[in-house]
């Protein structure tokens, strides 16, 4: 179990590094464009002012857009990546209520792993309440999960599909 937590944390760090890499790449592309603009400006517009302000806006915009793209890509990989097919026996299920955030449907298996049942827009999954209500304590299911467990960020693998296992 401890090994899985370490692997999950390494996965999160890797996703952050990917987001930072995308941001850095975006900045390098913008820097190359700015360099070409400077070259063009030195040949064509030697007497005009305001180039510094334009340059600042272009670089700031690239940083903001690159950061936003990186965050969205990171979130997509965390939420929809790491797909697993498991067989679990439900030990407990409950609803976690936490102030202003929406409620989380949580399911605990007999191995002590916790899963959430949440809608996923990009998968077209809008039936989380139905899935949660179909799960019965003590029964065994084949489930498809996506996502990771990270205690610091309160992330749980998400149950996307369930299938009864007859015993």
What's a quick, concise take on this entry?
This protein has helices spanning 2-44, 51-80, 128-134; strands at 84-96, 104-109, 114-117, 140-146, 158-164. It has 167 residues and is α+β, with helices and mostly antiparallel strands. It has 2 domains: 2-80; 84-164, OB fold (Dihydrolipoamide Acetyltransferase, E2P) (Beta Barrel), CATH 2.40.50.
Structural features, described:
The protein has 167 residues and is of the alpha+beta class. The chain has 2 domains: 2-80; 84-164, Beta Barrel (OB fold (Dihydrolipoamide Acetyltransferase, E2P)), CATH 2.40.50.140. Helices cover 48% and strands 22% of the residues. The longest helix is centred in the first third of the chain and has 43 residues, at 2-44.
Please describe the topology of this protein:
Layout: H1 2-44, H2 51-80, E1 84-96, E2 104-109, E3 114-117, H3 128-134, E4 140-146, E5 158-164
Antiparallel strand pairs: 1-2, 1-4, 2-3, 4-5
Order of helices and strands: HHEEEHEE
Give the N-terminus to C-terminus distance in angstroms.
27 Å
Residues in β-strands, percent: 15-25%
Fraction of helical residues: 40-55%
Radius of gyration from the CA trace?
23 Å
Number of strands: 5
Which fold name is given in CATH as the topology of the largest domain? Answer: OB fold (Dihydrolipoamide Acetyltransferase, E2P)
Within CATH, the superfamily of the largest domain carries the name Nucleic acid-binding proteins
Query: What is the number of helical segments per DSSP (H or I, 4+ residues)?
Result: 3
Strands of the largest sheet, in order across it?
A: 3-2-1-4-5
Which class do the helix and strand fractions yield?
Answer: alpha+beta
CATH architecture of the largest domain: Beta Barrel
Number of domains: 2
CATH class of the largest domain: Mainly Beta
């Amino acid at each position: 179990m401890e090994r899985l937590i370490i692997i999950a944390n390494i996965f999160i760090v890797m996703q952050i590094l990917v987001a930072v890499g995308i941001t850095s790449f975006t900045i390098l592309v913008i820097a190359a464009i700015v360099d070409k603009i400077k070259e063009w400006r030195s040949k064509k517009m030697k007497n005009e002012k305001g180039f510094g302000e334009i340059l600042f806006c272009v670089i700031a915009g690239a940083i903001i857009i690159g950061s936003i793209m990186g965050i969205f890509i990171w979130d997509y990989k965390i939420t929809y990546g790491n797909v697993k097919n498991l067989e679990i026996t439900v030990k407990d299920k409950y609803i976690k209520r936490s102030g202003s955030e929406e409620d989380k449907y949580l399911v605990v298996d007999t191995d002590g792993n916790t899963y959430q049942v949440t809608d996923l827009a990009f998968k077209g999954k809008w039936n989380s309440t139905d899935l949660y209500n179909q799960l019965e304590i003590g029964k065994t299911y084949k489930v498809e999960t996506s996502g990771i467990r990270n205690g610091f960020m309160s992330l749980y693998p998400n149950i996307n599909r369930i299938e009864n296992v007859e015993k």
